[in-house]
UniProtKB/TrEMBL annotation:
Belongs to the TDD superfamily. TSR3 family. This is 18S rRNA aminocarboxypropyltransferase. Residues 88-214 form the 16S/18S rRNA aminocarboxypropyltransferase Tsr3 C-terminal domain. Its main location: cytoplasm.
Amino acid sequence: MAKGKGKNKSRGDETSRGSHKGSNGHSSRLNHKRMELRQHDGVKGTKFPVKMAMWDFDHCDPKRCSGKKLERLGLITSLKVGQKFQGIVVSPNGQGVVCPDDRAIVEEFGASVVECSWARLDEVPFNRIGGKHERLLPYLVAANQVNYGRPWRLNCVEALAACFAIVGRMDLASDLLSNFSWGLGFLELNKELLEVYQKCTDHESVKKAEEDWLNKIEEEAQQRKNEARDGDIWMMGNVNRNMNKMTLSDEESDEEETEASSIRYDNLGNAIIDESDEEEPEISSIRYDNLGNVIVDESDEEASSST
Ligand SMILES: C[S@@+](CC[C@H](N)C(=O)[O-])C[C@H]1O[C@@H](n2cnc3c(N)ncnc32)[C@H](O)[C@@H]1O
């Protein structure tokens, strides 16, 4: 187990919910922050309307770590390895997904996360942490500065906010995220999808909604791909059409060949001209008198009389 400031090393403040004591030395700046938060929540004597907790494995850079920031703000309680949590445990080790039916558990017992590195999950003793209500999160996209745009891998504050949002407590989600400059962007980015999940009930319905969403975005991606290809066609010409053209020109040359093959030759190799080729006299060669009668050439008369 990693050594350091992780709250798995000391019992610290696990019973401090509602008290103003923190686990980090209680600087006046932090106490000031807490005062601000209490005023902000309008819930006297509490840092946040529902309990939040984390198992902190000290894997992350404290300056970038959202869990540590929540702790500095006095919003989250640290839990020890071996300690279980009664509320919803949002964890990569979860079985079902967070769903609106979890709302009562969240409101009564709160929500918790595992503050660790995604790259070091195998170092986390999942069998010694957690609780009765361990949950995965359904498909959502991170908005934090480290993993922006990445699906599923949310940081701790996003994971807690997602849990609150899915169970229909958008007020808690936005209050929590407003402590981070980028925070409300998470709700914006996932607005439509969160609304879909909020309309569900149990784990299965959230899983079904997630599956439908994933199919939809896959179809849309495919459509965009097709549109991009069609765009190329306007720029470059239809490749299939070019293929047809090639075929057509082959056909054309075939036609020419056919025409050529329709020419017959006599025994001396002279081309035999078909009579039908000579049927129509050239219009320009027809002359008319003043009354509109065709002037017949004497030579023509000879020719016609000879047939
Ligand atoms: C792996 S830690 C990374 C924390 C990050 N260093 C930070 O600054 O917050 C994120 C935690 O959020 C929760 N979490 C995030 N995305 C999740 C998901 N898709 N399913 C379940 N839990 C998730 C888990 O508790 C997970 O351990």
